[in-house]
Here is the input.
Amino acid sequence: MLRKASSFPEEMLEHVLSFITSDKDRNAVSLVCKSWYEIERWCRKRIFVGNCYAVRPEMVIRRFPELRSVELKGKPHFADFDLVPDGWGGCVYPWIAALATAYPLLEEIKLKRMVVSDESLEVIAKSFKNFKVLVLSSCEGFSTDGLAAVAANCRNLRGLDLRESEVDDPSGQWLSRFPDSFTSLASLNISCLGAEVSFSALERLVGRCPDLKSLRLNHAVPLDKLANLLRGAPQLVELGTGAYSAELQPDVFSNLAGAFSGCKELRSLSGFWNVFPGYLPAVYPVCSGLTSLNLRDANIQGADLIKLVSQCRSLQRLWVLDYIEDIGLEELAACCKDLTELRVFPSDPYGAEPNVSLTERGLVSVSEGCPKLQSVLYFCRQMTNAALVTIAKNSPRMTCFRLCIIEPRAPDYQTLQPLDLGFGAIVENYKDLRRLSLSGLLTDRVFEYIGTYAKKLEMLSVAFAGDSDMGLHHVLSGCAKLCKLEIRDCPFGDNALLANAAKLETMRSLWMSSCSVSFRACKLLGQKMPRLNVEVIDERGPPDLRPENCPVEKLYIYRTIAGPRFDMPGFVWTMNGDSV
Amino acid sequence: MAQPLGLEITELRLGLPGSENGPKNEKKRVFSEWAGEENSTADDRKIQTKSQVVGWPPVCSYRKKNSFNEKDGHETSKFYVKVSMDGAPFLRKVDLGLHKEYSDLLVALEKLFGCFEIGKALKDTDDCEHVPIYEDKDGDWMLVGDVPWEMFIDSCKRLRIMKRSEANGFGLQPGGALKGISKDDRDCETTQKY
Here is the structure.
């Protein structure tokens, strides 16, 4: 009897695959041969769909019958900045309805930038008996009614995370819908909720869930009640406080400080709305153990801020407002040698004049003092090529670099030159750079550098930059790994886009708004590339009522195997062979 | 690999930018005209009054709408109401707080549904195909446009753009509640998928 050469028992391959969890690796496995494709698809448990319109739910269900976790993203990233009009799309309901029928054992649903109705939440609550984790990141369209359904029905819920979502009719009563017998909660993030939640329900919930490791409160939870919560959950690893102010009373203070001291596992702090600085020392006991500190919403300034940050010697991630100023960043660089991620946000983004002394020097200090720096988001009002070159040389591990100089097209303030050379040094030195956001005065030259050096770049954000189509051409023809490209207010037009049409099928999506792409080019692209959806977004009315060479307002192009979508509002048109 | 799609791409030169003068300058000129900044230097730009550009600087809009710090003066009142249109498969939402008067609102609705004659209803003509109505605090359906704007946004719970053919059966009277919307119709609306 002949045995097949190289017959590898399926069960063994399945067992090996159970250790392979990254999507990229799983995808690679599935391409080896037909039998590996089959084995892999039957045992894939998690799926990430970066664009909910790239594939239809039925296609996912047909290929992967045993999923336990589904992650979806909807609107393009620029929706965060009001560039995607309301009603554009991203409704999750069709997905939820399909998943409910296909996967009764589904445990996790994670959504980002999607429109989630109360009805969707009700379906989730009632369809999945073993449902464990719901993450709604920057979502909207639901109210506390939907949350009440989840609380009442998901007996095994471990995580409910509403980060950055907009919740309608925010009343607090839904928390009481968690039954008294419910004790499995490990993670709760309600920081986005606008109104009060029932504190007694919250306190009881926190007290009866021994696995609760992550608790992010909303601003309405008062400071004088925080100590009670902490004493009920000394095992917390992540805490987001509520409003951090109250009249300074010694007993409230010592109660709070004592409660913080009891939280020996605390590694991450956030929240801190409306800080009354007198209460800050209450957190000092936990500072030395903190690896993550998010002061994004904290109006702490000056010495109070520096004192707090400089005690966090183990800090790896810091998000802070520009109140930290150059002087605070110098201190950070001296104290926090393990820093890997820094985000500095503008306290007064729309002010004409700077309100704080935060310049390029702050970022240079951090790059000099923190050799492990990998990820930067930095809003400032001035920059030089020299500073960028220094920063480029100091931080070889950088994978994500986003610089936002608040004034569009601001040049090097010392030489008045464009910042091409500075960003050129950035892409040349950061060999592992995966994400880059540009700002300041930039010519086509910077795009030439990017196309030449940024070979691992996956996401690029561009605004008010470039001179001509060559800029766009350099990026599309040079950046081999480019996945997402988003552009606004740049003089990029038809030629580069049409010349690089095939490139678009290798990317997730391209967004262009306030550029120079004509309706004619959009139609042509839509006709020639059936596996792209070319969506024209134009609130001025139907584009065919204007001359064909008129530029469209906004353009969103994404690859898809689902064909054109049918849920578009009145201001979105898909360019397809037939519908044009 | 780039496919030219049969278009002339002779304008694309892979030399260094600025090495040739002709076409490049043309493109520059076109852009600056379009951007409304002809011949402005860095100094000029500083002197110009700052007009706010949408979505710039790129600060998450979630933060603007939901800022809980007392010191922030931003008052964004959100009067989001759901809007359904007969024949359209999806509910939309509209923020009444963004509008100052009825004509504003109707223009927004027209854009949202791609139906550009809703505004006619304001002019009291009988020949528009769609009629905008709203449900008030008491649960009655009223014709949009009859009460003063402030009273409207105070009492409007949701909007519906109804086909005139349906409306005719309801004894449409300006200023009065619409009789004759049956409970069945109400139930129908709540089952529309969002």
In short: The mean pLDDT of chain A is 95. Residues 250-261 of chain A form the longest helix (12 residues).
